[in-house]
Amino acid sequence: MKKRRRRLLILLIIMVLLVGCWWFNTFTLTQNVISIADDKIKGAVTIVQITDLHGASFGQNNQQLIDKIAEAQPDLIAVTGDMYSAGDNAGQATALALLAALADEYPVYYVNGEHDNDEAFHQDLVANGVHVLNYQSEEIVVNETSLCLYGINNMYYSPTFDLANEFTLDPEKYNILLAHASNFAAFSDFGIDLSLCGDTHGGQIRLPFIGALNNRGVWFPEMTAADNGEAEYTKGLYRDEDHQLFISSGLGNYPLPFRLFNRPEIAVIHLVPAE
Predict the structure, then answer these.
(1) What is the pTM of this model?
(2) Among residues 28, 11, 9, which one has the least CA distance to residue 20?
(3) Could you tell me if 49 and 34 are in contact, meaning their C-beta atoms sit under 8 angstroms apart?
(4) Which residues lie below 8 Å from residue 140, measured CB to CB, with a gap of 6+?
(5) Which residues make Cβ contacts (< 8 Å) with residue 141, sequence separation at least 6?
(6) What dihedral angle (degrees, nearest 10) is formed by the CA atoms of 71, 76, 81, 82?
């Protein structure tokens, strides 16, 4: 009898630990804070990037997420797609309410992913003050720093697509590209200073000392980075000479309903003058 109770107690403890691990990794927000110095930056600029919400809620009306963003005191917000999952009407309403609330407080710039590639949704965003960068660019000045923001909705970047056919780059400005999925070589060749992307979910499941379990169909992509091309870029900041790529692991989950060693994040990017 005592052995049976001991087994049940051990099983209960294991279940509680598993549920706690699932909850912590899937529903507790964190900030991924990075700093980038560049000669083109004249005054400090703070960008918050959010991506891949997939209709998730963090607190009632996403108030926990809104508060976490407010802590960063952003000058602008970059949204890089998949804010709801295709066919999820409730998730679409959640995403719209969140972005509308953020646009009341900050300049919000948005590009879509494959799930939220919906013209009616984009029109609703525009009506609520969101800047939808559908093959468009905007020039802004923040704290004496001239920024040019570019956005594309070429979700997985067709090899026949050429950024030079869409935009003319101003090398005097700090050029930022919003794109759902990365193509670092193409973005760097065009001359983009900083590319902000999502899509990967950071692999969604990550393992200590190994990294992402899978990205773009490649298993353990960070362990075999030299051989797998774009799949090696799963999460974080990457550099190619003067060009940088940042991939946020995002907020939501798809298709699996959980994360592991990869908490939902907002990215806080501080652009600072070079010393």
Answers:
(1) 0.93
(2) 28
(3) no
(4) 76, 107, 146, 147, 149
(5) 147
(6) 30
Whether omega for the bond prior to residue 74 falls within 30 degrees of 0, making it cis, is no
Topology given in CATH for the domain delimited by 2-273: Purple Acid Phosphatase; chain A, domain 2 (3.60.21)
**Tokens at residue 104, please?**
């009341």
Q: Per-residue pLDDT for the chain (275 aa), expressed as one digit of tens each?
A: 667 777 777 777 778 877 777 777 788 999 999 999 999 999 999 999 999 999 999 999 999 999 999 999 999 999 999 999 999 999 999 999 999 999 999 999 999 999 999 999 999 999 999 999 999 999 999 999 999 999 998 777 777 788 998 999 999 999 999 999 999 999 999 999 999 999 999 999 898 989 998 888 888 888 876 566 778 899 999 999 899 999 999 999 999 888 989 999 999 999 999 97
Closest among 196, 161, 166, 163 to 181, alpha carbons compared: 196
